[in-house]
Amino acid sequence: MHYIDENHILLFLLQVLVLLGAARTLSALCEAIKIPALAGEILAGILLGPTLFGRLFPSLHAWFFPLDKTQWTMLDTASWLGVFFLLLSSGFHVNVGHALRKGRAAILIGIVGVLVPFAIGYPVFRTLDAMYWGDKATPLSFALFLSVAGSITAISVVARALGDLKISKTSEGSSCTSSMCY
User: Fold this and answer.
1) Which of 54, 84, 114 delimits the end of a domain?
2) In whole angstroms, what is the distance from residue 125 CA to residue 130 CA?
3) What pLDDT is recorded for position 15?
4) Rounded-to-10 torsion of CA 16, 17, 22, 23
5) Owning domain of residue 69
6) What is the pLDDT of residue 179?
């Protein structure tokens, strides 16, 4: 059994501080040049993740994001809570009355908003090497899982971008947000 000690908590707080600090800083820079804040937050994840930080400074990345099960569980739980609250806040912007009046358009936008990312993601994920799959995955299950996850994530990203651009309350933005949150 894994127990949390003060070192786990200290490192977790440092991780959260650096991740949120970088996300907020880059989102403010993006907002200053009229790009949705979400782009800066995604960029912070790319810069601090294994894609860049892990390749340029592998030992520092391994210290800051150790393979310790307890540490990963803490950070993973925080990230899932973040996804939950992102979806929840996107749902708060749904104008149900407008969605019901514009039902056909909302459904069409929702279907396209899920199918297009799925159609783009599946062939890409199908080509990834087996070392990324996990023990029990097959090429089909791996590609399908990541494609579904990517298309579902696209829904909340679009809703958040509409909110960042302050167009989620417009007629067009409301149609997109409401269809994607259903």
Assistant:
1) 84
2) 11
3) 95
4) 50
5) 1-84
6) 45
